[in-house]
Design brief:
With 128 residues, the chain is mainly alpha-helical. The chain contains 4 helices and no strands. The protein is elongated. 5% of the residues are buried.
C-alpha cells in the first residue's frame, strides 16, 4: 500500500512458496527468512507417500528409474491420501522449475514419458 511504483509503501505483502523434503527442513528454511518478518502459513502440503508396492513395480518395469519424493497435490496425491493405490511418473525437466513459464521438457523426453506410461498401463492390464 499504496500500490504505486513511485511511492514508499506503508505495507508490503509477500507470498513465499517454500519446499523441502521434510517438515523439519521446511521449518528451518522458513525460519531462516528472518524472525523480524511476521509470517502466516496459508497452506501446507505434506510429502505424499505413494503405494510402495506399486512404486517399486513401476520403477522395476521402467528399468530402475529414480524414485522421487513429492508433495504433489495432483490427482494422484489426493487419491493416495484417500488410500487409493497411486503413483506418479515424472518427465525429466532440465530446468528443475515447476509450475512456471520457465518449466520445460524436450519433445524427446515427453515421448519417453508417453511410452513409459503406455508400458505401465499395459503391465497393469489397463490396455492391450
Amino acid at each position: 500500500a499504496p500500490n504505486s511504483t513511485n511511492a514508499i509503501p506503508s505495507e508490503v505483502t509477500v507470498w513465499l512458496d517454500a519446499r523441502a523434503a521434510t517438515e523439519e527442513a521446511l521449518e528451518s528454511l522458513v525460519s531462516s527468512v528472518g524472525s523480524e518478518v511476521p509470517m502466516t502459513a496459508e497452506s501446507l502440503t505434506r510429502r505424499v507417500e505413494f503405494d510402495p508396492g506399486l512404486r517399486d513395480r513401476l520403477a522395476g518395469l521402467l528399468g530402475g528409474v529414480p524414485v522421487l519424493p513429492t508433495a504433489a497435490g495432483h490427482d494422484a496425491g489426493v487419491l493416495a491420501e484417500a488410500g487409493v493405490s497411486s503413483a506418479m511418473l515424472f518427465v525429466r525437466n532440465p530446468t528443475g522449475v515447476s509450475h512456471s513459464p520457465a518449466e520445460h521438457a524436450s519433445a524427446e523426453d515427453c515421448i519417453v514419458g508417453t511410452e513409459s506410461l503406455a508400458r505401465v498401463l499395459t503391465d497393469l492390464g489397463g490396455f492391450q
